[in-house]
Specification:
heterodimer; A: alpha/beta; Rossmann fold; four-stranded antiparallel sheet; 10 strands; 27% strand; globular; B: mainly alpha; 9 helices; 2 strands; 76% helix; 11% strand; transmembrane (chain B); transmembrane helix (chain B); membrane (chain B); ATP hydrolysis activity (chain A); nucleotide-binding (chain A)
């Protein structure tokens, strides 16, 4: 479970998050949506312990978040920076050496699903394939929390849909909480359990996607359009 | 331990270009000294000057290596810092790799130059050259480690500043802080109280070679070593180790608590 209590974050004079209160429970795939600069990435970094709140507190499974929370949180960054001298296989081996919970067998299964060649060098991979590798490395960890910041941004629109659907099979929804930020809302809509909308550093809505669809007859995009206006 | 070893293996790959750059630079300086010396008939003299220059440069090998490696890491802090490993573990992995590269580079030139001087300068005997190598090694490595710890400390401060302002202003502020803290450190070390506290365990070093003297005549050339005796305090060595350890711990704390991605 992830809890943000009265969390604010400032970068100098710029306010990125403003008194955010949020509770996310295990066993769900949650989408964090909002426009550029709304605070999505900052929220993920705070949960990953890579940023510290200016005010308030972030907890993961009751533990106050520090950088060492990496033990129980898998984080996929939106940035396209790697150790380019690695091959795909070396990246997996390296990740496995750094995290005790890394499941190599699962990693190679996802790799196969992603149609990546283990012997390819990272510096020779296309942006889309580097994006796929990032997904492999973050999903292959058996951790309670997986954070994915724009995981589908580099993927071809033709394959994005099938990759999104396939991802579900690699997530243990009994034990894991997956928080995804994305602009590809239509593609992920069908796999999300909950959606959280963020605007100018404030949470403006938090809904169960099924309820939204059944009770309000709204898609996430419709709902977002409504709350953003 | 496996995680640390695996990380260190990665550090070797990441830092390899820095090692190669230095290796090529040293080879260039030494071969330059040799060929110029050879063409003017003063090979031993110019090669010694080149070697002295390389040894002086080598004091800065570790800080340079750390700068190279940490600059590469700065572009991907989200990968480097997203680990359950302590910052001390992350930095020590870089330091160990740097020291191994430093020893390798040093060994290549020590072996090469020892062979050269033993064969070309007849006043050199094995004992003299081993004494020289021993004192230079201790000097280069202790000073190199101290400067490396200083670099790590100020790099962590620079990184903290750079989150709030641009790199140029962060560098200027860090440099001002460096000058200020160096001045304080120098002033404190000059105090008679500190001198009493650290000037213990004196070792008399007799006839340590501090340089070479070359005389070139019309038809001949003479070479001899310049020696002097000096006093070395173990207390000063311990003081430097303590200060370096404090700076390393402070750098770890700053990166752990203040550096964000």
């Amino acid at each position: 479970m992830i809890t943000l209590t009265d969390v604010s974050k400032r970068y100098g004079t710029k306010k990125a998050l403003d008194h955010v209160n949020l509770e996310l429970t295990t066993g769900k795939l949650i989408g964090l949506v909002g426009e550029n600069g709304s605070g999505k990435s900052t929220t993920l970094k705070l949960i990953a312990g890579l940023n510290y709140p200016t005010n308030g507190e972030v907890r993961v499974d009751g533990e106050k978040v520090t950088r060492r929370i990496a033990d129980s949180v898998s984080y996929l960054s939106e940035l396209d920076e790697y150790y380019r001298f690695f091959t795909v296989k070396k990246s997996i081996e390296f990740q496995a050496s750094q995290f005790k919970d890394f499941d190599k067998e699962k990693a190679y299964d996802i790799l196969k699903f992603m149609k990546l060649d283990p012997n390819d060098k990272l510096k020779q991979l296309s942006k889309g394939n580097r994006g796929r590798l990032k997904i492999v490395l973050s999903l292959a960890r058996n951790v309670p929390v997986i954070l994915m910041d724009e995981p589908f941004s580099g993927l071809d629109p033709m394959v994005r849909n099938s990759i999104v659907k396939g991802l579900i099979s690699f997530i243990d929804l009994e034990k894991q909480l997956v928080l995804i930020t994305t602009h590809e809302i239509r593609e992920v809509e069908n796999i999300l359990d909950e959606v959280v909308a963020i605007k100018a550093g404030s949470i403006i809505g938090h809904h169960n996607v099924e309820e939204l669809r059944e009770q309000k007859q709204m898609s996430i995009v419709d709902w977002m359009t409504e709350v953003y206006e | 331990m496996n995680a640390w070893l695996s990380l260190t293996k990665k550090e070797f790959q990441l830092g390899l270009p820095a090692f190669l750059i230095v290796l090529i630079l040293y080879a260039g300086i030494l071969s330059g000294g040799y060929f110029i010396g050879n063409s003017v008939g003063y090979t031993e003299g110019l090669l010694s000057v080149a070697l002295g220059f390389v040894v002086t440069l080598h004091i800065f090998f570790l800080p340079f290596y750390l700068y190279y490696s940490l600059s590469a890491e700065r572009k991907r802090l989200h990968l480097w810092l997203h680990t359950p490993m302590s910052i001390a573990g992350l930095l020590s992995s870089k330091i160990v790799t740097g020291i191994i590269f430093m020893i390798t580079t040093f060994a290549v030139f020590v072996i090469g130059s020892t062979n050269f001087f033993l064969h070309s300068l007849d006043f050199f005997n094995q004992e003299t050259i081993f004494n020289l190598i021993g004192s230079i090694t201790v000097f280069v490595f202790t000073l190199g480690l101290f400067i490396a710890a200083t670099f790590l400390f100020f790099w962590s401060i620079f990184l903290t500043f750079s989150q709030l302002m641009n790199d140029f202003i962060s560098f200027i502020l860090t440099f001002i802080l460096f000058l200020f803290l160096s001045w304080i450190y120098g002033t404190v070390m000059e105090l008679s109280f500190m001198q009493t506290l650290t000037n213990w365990g004196s070792i008399q070093l007799n006839d340590i070679i501090v340089g070479f003297e070359f005389d070139y005549f019309e038809n001949a050339f003479e070479a001899q070593t310049m020696s002097e005796s000096s006093i070395f305090y173990i207390g000063n060595f311990v003081r430097d180790i303590v200060v370096a350890a404090i700076m390393f711990i402070a750098a770890c704390w700053i990166i752990e608590k203040k550096v964000e991605v």
